[in-house]
């Protein structure tokens, strides 16, 4: 593993503490200690799940990125786009459901779609990079 990928992996591992805090907050939600609509509960679950899964995918991707012959911008897209998607997609779920009594997404739903685009760019770049290596 290159030094750059190792450092990025270390930073990604540190973000797991925030996901753990999110899990603790989820336990408060399901116990009824945090008042939320059913919509908000479902978006909180989705945001928490996307964060966890995409962080794991980010770490796996970093193991593969150094096995490609990618250079320059494509290399950085393969390295950074998946962890960026974890932030944007989970943030999109949380931000777009924020507000007392909300029953539908607010104007921050666009973050979710930017994150989905980042995820697609990252996995496509990495996948193609591995195939042609």
Explain what you see.
This protein is 77% helix and 0% strand. The chain is an all-alpha fold and 133 residues long. The two termini are 16 Å apart.
Tally of helical segments = 5
Q: What value does the Rg take, in angstroms?
A: 17 Å
Sheet with the most strands, sense and barrel status: none
Low-confidence stretches: none
Strand content: under 5%
* Mean pLDDT, all residues: 96
Record field, number of beta strands = 0
Oligomer: single chain
Shape: elongated
Termini separation comes to: 16 Å
Helix content: over 70%
SS-based class: mainly alpha
SSE succession: HHHHH
Task: Please describe the topology of this protein.
Layout: H1 3-14, H2 16-30, H3 38-65, H4 72-96, H5 110-132
Features:
133 residues, mainly alpha, 77% helix, 5 helices
Short description:
Helices cover about 75% and strands about 0% of the residues. With about 130 residues, the chain is mainly alpha-helical.
